[in-house]
Amino acid sequence: MSIKKIPGGTITTPKGFKASGLYCGIKAKSRKPDLALVVSDVPAVSAGMFTRNRLKAWPVLHSMQMIRKSEKHRAIIANSGNANCINGPRGKVAVQSVVKSLSENAGIPEKQILICSTGIIGLRLPVLKITRAMPRLVKRLSARGGHRAAQGILTTDTRTKEIGIAFSVGRTEVRMGAIAKGVGMVHPNMATMLNFITTDCAIARPLLFRALRAAVSKTFNMMSIDNDLSTNDTVFILANGRAGNSRLTSPDDKYWRFEEALVYAATQMAKQLIKDGEGATKFCEIVVSGAKNQGDAERAARNIANSMLFKTMLVGADPNWGRIAAAVGASGIAFKPEQLSIAFNGIRLLSHGKYLVSARPDVKKVLKHNEFRIDVVIGEGHHSATFFTCDLTKGYVHINAAYST
Asked: What do you get for the CA distance between the two ends of the chain, in Å?
């Protein structure tokens, strides 16, 4: 299927979506945008996935309930700079107050509003700052407001993450857009990540959930910056049907085109998140193949990516393939060492258990690049998995050592 990436594409790329973002006072030190709003012109079929951390922030708990209660939603409001988490019952009241304020200012039923927060845990959410800014936030809603909304959800990110694509469902052009944030506390089962996706495709809710689960499992659950699981992870998708295609109601060829497009968009967003990882200087795509089953492939890839020794290997551009081999062995999967092969951007350093010393200088050059791919063959099976990760530098330590000061 042909997927066209739209220059300057963002969450308002699909028909019938508007967005806005502004500074309301939460980030008093930096005075950077800290509030974002995305609205569909009409109620949109919705789906969402959330952190698996047992300790969930108040907005996560609220939105989980809203997703269960209603099939359609019109708005997503999010703040940055404050996670609204582990701050007592007032945190729950704060969510209700923000939702009520948006409902009154935008004329959207409370049950059609989803909410997110990201930032420091344990602080009281400054509700008055948000509600006082609500009239301006609503007034600034625009089809050109996607970038501003993308700015409003950033925390330690150095740049926005945005995408807009177009593809065909039957004879109808369908569009999809997204914004995201999250460059620390990023670990499989999602991350300290907010990711909002919009599409003008007409699709039944069970299929929308199916497509979202598939996309998350292949992308946001297959990436890692560090080994910490956040309290606020959220992925939403809104589908308002404004493209005018025949509604997708069964898993036919048209549905598979939609899922392929969603996986593509999510993959691009996942890569943007990892490339902007806190203190990161290297982006690495790990592909494990030859596994007997999918679970083995994923476990091996995940164990390599999350190895601290592997991450320091990337920092130093040190082609120490032994750390990769050790991580595969530590994953607990069954494999034969003599079948193990490791290649860096196609240059083999280990071939069927034999160390190719002469390739070491070439591999060292590869590891000095900002981006590269490592292929690990663990056997003769037919299953494979792809995982995105980055190095772990002194910059990461510096950022997180003073995050709440």
From this structure: 49
